[in-house]
Design brief:
The protein is an alpha+beta fold. It is built from 13 helices and eleven strands. The strands form three sheets. Strands 1, 2, 3, 4, 5 and 6 form a six-stranded antiparallel β-sheet that branches. The protein is globular. The protein binds 2-acetamido-2-deoxy-1-O-phosphono-alpha-D-glucopyranose and magnesium ion (MG). The site of magnesium ion has 3 residues, from loops.
Length: about 375
């Protein structure tokens, strides 16, 4: 990090309710969408760390209600944790640090939107799952998250991205991108396009089940990637889930589906060696066990019935989002090499096939739990 950036972050820190002396700053994550920095302060002989994060306002067009959601949700989680007599609350739920003017965000002179959290200490995240125990912890963490929020009426939350998991709309957008083929990329992605279009029968399944009133909307996380779970450095226990920008009304199945996408194969999201990409049953079994353990109190039989399908559907949906972005010129997801979005899409589609092939066995695992 250069001196300018350091200075910028020090300036940002001074606007928030942070006491003590600024010591250092570094970038901690290059997400697909936002940018995240850790900053260290010295406070009366103690070192305290914070996270400053920018919000991408071309993706999240209404950052103010978004931050109200984040506050509402983190406060609710904290109350629920307190009721259960949990300790170590600052490692179990994010704490929003308000700006000096009392608002939960700050817009800097260049128009960048910043928010600040207390840094969660002694945890780490993983880009790819490594063990069944980790998959179990992920299921438990997001399951608990939903459970703790199950008494927060989802209508109280703003919709931060409309139709975020609306697979039919995502599919239409892909069809459009194929039709215009502005960058002449369709030819190089012909196999992926053919696969995507052939999956159309799956596209409406959850939308229809919801429209028929079979499955309800609840307060959900909507971005339940494994790298959004913070695991304790010592014990491996899931402490806290992060990235609350898409917490809003949704189907719990979208959350479970994204957990299947990111915790049932020990490969990164952009793995290019596709032979390695398989849905691994021990990981799925552990994930499902953790999730069902945590959601027992509210999950209905109808929701349970769609868990496996949701795994394939959400993996597919994220796959077509990568493909669409590739065809449209990589304007949404941050890329680090040419064809990065196409690689990401290929990995997702390979996993979809693997899930589809093993669906019956996966369902049997669910039925045993
Ligand atoms: C984006 O920014 P990040 O990495 O949390 C995306 C998710 C995708 C994910 C794929 C707001 O999440 O929907 O599943 O990339 N978030 C948004 O890795 O579009
Ligand atoms: Mg996210």
């Amino acid at each position: 990090m250069n001196a300018d950036e350091r200075g910028l972050l020090q300036g940002v820190g001074s606007v928030f309710q942070i006491e003590g002396e600024f010591r250092e700053a570094h970038r901690i994550k290059v997400g697909h969408i936002n940018e995240t920095f850790a900053v260290t302060y010295q406070q009366a002989g103690r070192t305290v760390r914070y996270v400053h994060q920018t919000l991408n306002t071309s993706v999240f067009r209404e950052p103010v209600p978004l931050m109200q959601n984040v506050l509402h949700v983190t406060q609710h989680l904290r109350r629920r944790l307190e009721e259960r007599g949990e300790r170590d609350l600052d490692r179990r739920a994010l704490r929003v640090i308000p700006a000096r003017d009392g608002l939960p965000f700050h817009v800097d002179a260049t128009g960048r939107f910043w928010r600040t959290f207390l840094f969660v200490e002694q945890v780490r995240t993983y880009e790819a799952v490594e063990t069944p125990e980790q998959a179990y912890q992920a299921g438990l963490a997001f399951g608990r998250f939903q459970d703790f929020l199950s008494d927060l009426p989802c209508q109280e939350l703003a919709v931060t991205i409309p139709d975020f998991h609306h697979t039919r709309k995502r599919f239409r957008r892909l069809q459009q991108a194929i039709q215009t083929d502005e960058l002449n990329r369709c030819q190089g992605a012909a196999r992926e396009i053919a696969f995507a279009l052939a999956q159309e029968p799956m596209v409406d399944t959850l939308l229809t089940a919801h429209a028929r009133g079979e499955i309800p909307e609840r307060t959900t996380h909507n971005d339940t990637k494994f790298n959004n779970v913070m695991l304790d450095l010592q014990t491996g226990e899931a402490m806290c889930v992060v990235d609350l920008d898409t917490v809003m009304p949704g189907l719990v199945l979208y959350d479970f589906g994204d957990m299947v996408r990111t915790t049932t194969s020990r490969t990164a999201e952009d793995e290019t060696y596709l032979d390695r990409v398989e849905m691994e049953m021990p990981l799925f079994q552990s994930l499902a066990r953790g999730y069902l353990e945590a959601t027992r109190g509210f999950l209905t039989p109808a929701e349970k019935k769609y868990l496996v399908l949701a795994g394939a559907l959400i993996t597919y949906t994220i796959g077509i989002r990568f493909l669409t972005d590739y065809l449209e010129g990589d304007t949404y997801f941050r890329v680090h090499r040419p064809d990065h979005n196409l690689d990401r899409c290929r990995k997702q589609f390979k996993l979809v096939q693997s899930i589809q092939r093993q669906s019956d066995a996966m369902q049997r695992q669910i039925d045993l739990l």
